[in-house]
Amino acid sequence: xxxxxxxxxxxxxxxxxxxxxxxxxxxxxxxxxxxxxxxxxxxxxxxxxxxxxxxxxxxxxxxxxxxxxxxxxxxxxxxxxxxxxxxxxxxxxxxxxxxxxxxxxxxxxxxxxxxxxxxxxxxxxxxxxxxxxxxxxxxxxxxxxxxxxxxxxxxxxxxxxxxxxxxxxxxxxxxxxxxxxxxxxxxxxxxxxxxxxxxxxxxxxxxxxxxxxxxxxxxxxxxxxxxxxxxxxxxxxxxxxxxxxxxxxxxxxx
Length: 254
Ligand SMILES: Nc1ncnc2c1ncn2[C@@H]1O[C@H](COP(=O)(O)OP(=O)(O)OP(=O)(O)O)[C@@H](O)[C@H]1O
Known about the structure:
This protein is an alpha/beta fold. It has helices spanning 3-6, 48-55, 77-83, 99-110, 118-123, 139-151, 169-186, 197-203, 221-227, 232-240; strands at residues 8-19, 22-33, 37-41, 63-68, 71-72, 84-87, 157-161, 189-194, 206-211, 214-220. The chain has one domain: Rossmann fold, CATH 3.40.50.300. The site of adenosine-5'-triphosphate has 10 residues, from helix 2. Pfam families: ABC_tran.
């Protein structure tokens, strides 16, 4: 394997996906470095969820390559799922069971029954959920449990679609800290999407903007902040909307 590929955890090359002849992912080229946090921004319908599903092998591309940890997203889908934690769309649970029971089933499925559940629940801010069934959980509690489930089996890669959806400000901060800790201390690679520019700006090492299925801009967050000290939000929104400033060729080189 080439040296650059060893350093890359998530990779796509000219990835294209259509639904009923409408291209929703177009010649998408992405490379996410191991142990880094990559934030993908895009307005509703831009193609974020579709891209994540392609990476996890839940959808078949029309053309191009998608790979995670050097494995082909379609062919090696089962192996990828063993090494990856994900949160895509509204999480589904065994509604009549408690948080602990749900995580126990997940760990049994992964063949990892020995992992302790309580510390993980504490880490996501669900310290003592007790026997309460998940159907009685608030939106934020469900989201916290979904993140716990994505992380508990100690994956090497996390693919998280809108992970802070429905969380209160304290919850958002808690997740920010969790993601940074996982990446910095445990070397986990994280690809996440969000509509919240400030959240992505605070957590991601690198930011990409997807517009109509294409990667319209990509840059290290520090560099972006340096160039757009006073207008980062305006600039990113304009790019997301496909506006005038979308001649972004310079932004790929950094
Ligand atoms: N199974 C499907 N069949 C047909 N069209 C689909 C399907 N899934 C997604 N699409 C379309 O693909 C486009 C991209 O959708 P996607 O869910 O990937 O966007 P998104 O960036 O995740 O949006 P949001 O921020 O609203 O979640 C949309 O136009 C959507 O209608």
